[in-house]
Design a protein that fits this description.
2 domains; 16% strand
Length: 249
């Protein structure tokens, strides 16, 4: 495996040009021709669009991979576990990733078995209220997660203008796209705790929430122990696996 230098975010045209230049440079340097191109499943990612272009130019197959399955596969490869006969549970908590069902994933539980990765569980989905804008404005994640809770509305309404509030209430009634992202849950909780409403940099809400949690931990020496909730989560995953097996048979 050969890895290029860090290329950064590909949203800008200059970064995309640098990506293509680096690909061509690595290819010439190694004297290699690609046999298959791998790309993220998300159709709007610049990297995925560039992959389509490269695959067409070299007339080779293009294989799209779900974002969080790729994270899990990377850990399996790191620990040489692809050939194992044991079942492996993978927990991938992330920001945004396009799911194979067309929804937004990010709080995923996978099972690796018989050289195959299957999604067996996920965090409770909520309505994806404003696309990628939700990642920039934790107040939107908070609204989507708790829009059916009257007490939450009292906390959140002051964070919006009157027109914004009416607009997003309509969106919540009309939008069917779901989101199971752990990152957006962290953002939403940060907004509900009034740590912030809009991120000034990527991941700010989650970092502020982590800081608050660490302060509480130091003050109280709080320890998470086995509880009914823990047992319930594990039991739910186990039952879901049996349901998956039954459906497959």
């Amino acid at each position: 495996m050969y890895v290029s230098q860090y290329l950064g975010n590909l949203e800008s045209y200059e970064a995309q040009q640098n990506y293509e230049h680096t690909f061509q440079h690595m290819q010439k340097l190694l004297g290699a021709k690609p046999e298959t191109i791998l790309a993220d499943l998300h159709p709007d990612y610049p990297s995925a669009q560039l992959a389509i272009k490269i695959a067409a130019a070299y007339q080779v197959p293009l294989k799209k991979i779900q974002h969080h399955e790729a994270h899990f596969a990377a850990v399996l490869a790191e620990h040489n576990l692809f050939e194992t006969n044991e079942k492996i549970l993978g927990v991938v908590w992330d920001g945004t990733g396009y799911g194979s069902d067309g929804n937004i994933w990010g709080g995923e539980f996978f099972m690796y078995e018989n050289r195959s990765i299957k999604r067996i569980h996920y965090l409770q989905p909520f309505i994806n209220i404003a696309g990628d804008k939700t990642a920039k404005e934790p107040r939107l994640a908070a609204l989507a997660i708790s829009h059916k809770m009257e007490k939450a509305a009292i906390l959140l309404k002051p964070k919006f203008t009157a027109n914004e509030w009416l607009f997003y209430q309509k969106v919540l009634q009309q939008n069917n796209l779901l989101n199971s992202s752990a990152g957006r849950y962290f953002d939403g909780v940060a907004a509900l705790l009034s740590l912030l409403s809009v991120n000034s940099y990527e991941g700010e809400g989650a970092l502020l929430l982590e800081t608050l949690a660490n302060e509480y931990l130091q003050e109280t020496n709080f320890t998470i122990e086995e509880s009914y909730a823990t047992e319930e989560i594990i039991t739910s995953i186990h039952c879901n696996e049996w349901h998956y097996r039954a459906d497959r048979q």
